[in-house]
Amino acid sequence: MEELAGLAGITVRTLRFYRERKLIPPPRREGRIAWYDDHHLARLRTISALLERGHTLNGIAELAEAFDHGRDVADLLGVGTPSEEEPVRLTPAELAARFEGEATPENLVAALDLGYLGTDGDDIVHISRRLLDASEALVREGFPLAEVLAAGRSVREHADALAELFAELVLRHGPQEEMERLRPLARSVVEAEVSLALDRRMNRMDKRDQPVRGRTRQ
What we know:
The protein has helices spanning 2-8, 12-20, 38-52, 57-68, 73-77, 92-98, 105-114, 129-140, 145-173, 178-209; strands spanning 28-30, 33-35, 88-90, 117-120, 123-126. A hairpin with a 2-residue loop joins strand 4 (117-120) and strand 5. The strands form two sheets. It has a three-stranded antiparallel β-sheet. The protein is elongated, with a radius of gyration of 24 Å. Helix 1 (2-8) crosses helix 3 and helix 9 packs across helix 10. The protein is mostly helical. The mean pLDDT is 84. The N and C termini lie far apart (83 Å).
């Protein structure tokens, strides 16, 4: 315990307090000897980084609980599943830095439940760099992360329906192996349709804002 506290830059008393609050997992015991490892050191350094960013111990405890009960990244991504998305590995402190003030336990739980995040040892893995960057950009624009995640859930439902439609189309006319080869075409169709839908939506908004000509106010 003294060795671990020294490496983490904290006192033994603080380490005991963290153990009592269940901020770190219990050590491996051999008789009267308690063995700590790199996992405990990484967790302590993460706690220190989060405290420096203004997070409370209560909040960190809730984050740790959500983190410990998160889905393993292997289950999230699937083994051998083809993907064009690039996963991003983050420490909890790095994730908190990306979403300053918005990395609350509630939002972390929502992201874990949505499947955006998985766990891998002491790290968090986001399933898609593009989704991570887009979510961060929206939060920096002033959109609450909770609403971004809620919108992401709705988008996920529509995306699943589109993927099912494309899969049925391919399977009606060829073997399943064709899906990966034709995948870029499906993505192009979806991206074009979303772009056109946004054009139509903005045109409707512009028409509503235009003054009505030829009328005088009585």
